[in-house]
Write a structure and sequence with these properties.
single chain; mainly alpha; 2 domains; three-stranded antiparallel beta sheet; globular
Length: 202
């Protein structure tokens, strides 16, 4: 539904064409509501003659929400790519597939999260100082997301169920819940960072 809506609404930041569908994917009901409530405020309405930009100042909680979507979408994408790689490659750390999952997913999530933040800052050309700014800006919120997500997946893997693997629907359902929890643990970190001026509001 979000992707279909893009046909009549253009996002001002191109990275949001990935971010909003990702939010809708793992945060289905609230993510869809958030797009129509918040995402459309940052869009341009497309008509035959010209683009009409719809702009409205967002409340602070919405600015923080959009800031959180950048790192969380990058993290989610890294996690969704990393889990199958570890499973199909048979990777382990200290004899544990779960630890290998965490390691590979964290690396990919961190990389994608920084890229999402980088383009969320409006950067188009690679620049060492800009990349450093993106890392400095988003590192804490990325780590907060992964702590929440990994914490739940550890419980799901070791306590709730006797092992989970990416070739099952249950794994991805638990991963979806874990990503929602990751968003929740990342949100207050983003709130503090935006409030203190360490991260720009979206």
């Amino acid at each position: 539904m979000i992707v279909f809506d893009f046909r009549s609404r253009r996002q001002m930041m191109k990275i949001m064409y990935i971010v909003w569908p990702m939010i809708g994917l793992y945060f289905p009901i609230i993510g869809l509501w958030a797009y129509y409530k918040i995402g459309r405020k940052d869009s341009m309405k497309v008509n035959k003659k010209h683009d009409q930009m719809q702009h409205a100042d967002k409340p602070f909680w919405q600015q923080v929400f959009v800031s959180t979507t950048h790192c969380s979408s990058g993290c989610a994408l890294g996690d969704m790519i990393g889990a199958p790689i570890v499973f199909w490659a048979g990777l382990t750390i200290a004899g544990s597939t779960l630890y290998a999952d965490f390691a590979v997913e964290f690396i990919l999530a961190f990389l994608f999260g920084i890229v999402f933040q980088y383009y969320g800052m409006g950067m188009n050309k690679a620049n060492d100082s800009h990349i450093a700014d993106a890392i400095k800006t988003d590192a804490l919120s990325l780590i907060a997301f992964e702590i929440g997500m990994f914490g739940f997946m550890l419980l799901a893997h070791s306590v709730f169920f006797d092992g989970l693997h990416p070739n099952s629907v249950l794994f991805w359902f638990m991963m979806q819940i874990a990503m929602i929890i990751g968003f929740a643990t990342s949100y207050p970190v983003n709130w503090i960072m935006v409030k203190k001026g360490m991260k720009h509001a979206m």
